[in-house]
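Posting this for the archive.
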Amino acid sequence: MKQVINIIFILLTNVLLAQNAAELFEKANAAYRDGSYSQALKTYHKTEKLGQESADLYFNMGNAYYKLNQIAPSIYYFEKALLLNPLHEDAKHNLVFAQRMTIDAIEIVPKSVLQRFNMAIIYPISYNTWAWISVVLAFLIAGFFLSYYFSRYTTNKRVFFILSFVSVGLFLFVLSFTIKAKHHYNKDQPAIIFSPKVSIKSEPQLNASETFVLHEGTKVQIVQTIDNWSKIKLTDGKIGWLLNTDFKKLK
């Protein structure tokens, strides 16, 4: 009985939190429409603290920061929106506008055909989704095999055998996509520079030589962390060290 009461309490709490978050979200949207962008952001952040994150919430926060000419947080929240929903076209569109206001012009190293395929097909879909597709295909394989085994007619056996064979091939492909997507998610540690100007060091030390300079809004990839320092890599291949206080991780 106590367990049932606890479950009901948790469900009611979640419902109330969701309702409160929805009300705050609409209140923030109203403030945004009225041009009160700072007030809208305060309310959006309250919604975020309730744990009701969504691509639309982060998209709206990015817009509000953009209106206030705060480029780093604007880019940060557009990127957060795209992490939750890589197909959010409005976030993609507005991110381009925000990135045009950054100072650093960083080239992108050309990618191979396989890398482009991964970026376009595999990575935009979460590894959990690929895993569920694998599970569905596994059930199809079992169903086709059972149908083949118990079928009395040669024609049907041939059809179910072919379907089983094709399903196994698709299952192996999707399973490999799941592993790749999982590996990419774990390895991918993007961050946005928040400090107006950052000196990137050759070593994780304040007195180390400067290798290059970055400015707010630039996206970097975290590849290693030592104490208060992180090693970053840019899309053009440059590598250096900066303090953890100079950026915010997207994940």
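The chain has a mean pLDDT of 90. The chain is about 60% helix and 15% strand.
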